[in-house]
Amino acid sequence: MTIAQHKVVTIHYKVSDSDSDELIDSSENGEPMTYLHGAQNIIPGLEQALEGKSTGDELEVTIPPAEAYGERSEDRIQQVPREAFQEMDKVEPGMAVTAQTEQGQINLVITEVEGELVTVDANHPLAGKSLKFSVTVEEVRDASDEEKAHGHVHGPGGHDHD
Q: What's the predicted TM-score (pTM) here?
């Protein structure tokens, strides 16, 4: 069976920064990742690279930023008053916070604290990076009607509804 729309795919993977070869994440020594193909559960470039592959296939692919987590945008970095963090005991660079906006929740990283101004970055931590993936396809199966309707995998490696 080949990977296509509405297939449940299980893969083992390693991902590294293509510039530095620094390992970012890996499923080695752990559980493989299972996702619903075509439901935007993984980055677009990897999903495209897996299209048409079968159980046992191995591939190495480098995904450019535009097909991964996007380019870094200076527009996503801003300074906000320290008082916006009044519910937090301490505010330090490197801290990840969630903010409620008119468009919904967004994840931010505090990059600088200077007096009464806090600089936050809404770029994904991997934005602007080309990512190198080494992938082995472990299993491909048809998705259930419920998985297709919900847009994600159920059961082992997926999501359980109680």
A: 0.82
